[in-house]
Design a protein that fits this description.
49% helix; 5-stranded mixed sheet; alpha+beta; globular; YaeB-like fold; transmembrane; 2 domains
Length: 156
């Protein structure tokens, strides 16, 4: 009888520990999401407008280089858009209200800035950067596809 009480006590403590750890993990996950959203707000609308001003001026003069990713090409095809139409009608009209996050440090290129647009009823995730090669700056569109997660617009 004493042995079974001992094992029951251990089992109950184990169950309590598992529930506690589950709650702790959920709390950590939710704080990471909140922290990420809070971090976005640290980027001021002036910083966003400065990036967009530079990106859009480069795009007007030199055009935009689109990364030829399957998901980007698929979205443009689905929306019946060309790179020049995306540049002229969408990228050159982005504002701080369309901003989602950034600058995001990237290893393979300059920091990236993310925006979102609703185009013909489809949400589109847009990731942009400005690269520099031999003193020449180039506007690049890294991503133009459906978002993989809900987009957060801190200045909408």
């Amino acid at each position: 009888m004493m042995v079974s009480f001992f094992y029951c006590n251990i089992i109950l403590k184990f169950i309590y520990y598992v529930k506690f750890m589950s709650i702790l993990i959920q709390t950590i996950k939710s704080h990471k999401i909140h922290l990420k959203q809070t971090m976005n707000i640290i980027t001021t609308s002036n910083q966003i407008e400065k990036f967009l001003f530079e990106f859009q001026n480069i795009a007007k003069v030199n055009g935009v280089r689109f990364w030829q990713r399957p998901e980007n090409l698929s979205m443009m095809t689905m929306l019946d858009l060309t790179e020049s139409v995306v540049t002229k009608d969408i990228l050159l009209n982005l504002t701080a209200k369309d901003y989602c996050e950034g600058p995001i440090p990237e290893e393979s290129h300059s920091d990236a800035w993310c925006f979102g647009q609703n185009i013909d009823g489809k949400n589109v995730y847009i990731k942009l950067t400005i690269t520099k090669k031999k003193k020449r700056k180039r506007a690049e569109c890294i991503s133009f596809h459906e978002p993989t997660r809900p987009l957060f617009y801190p200045y909408a």
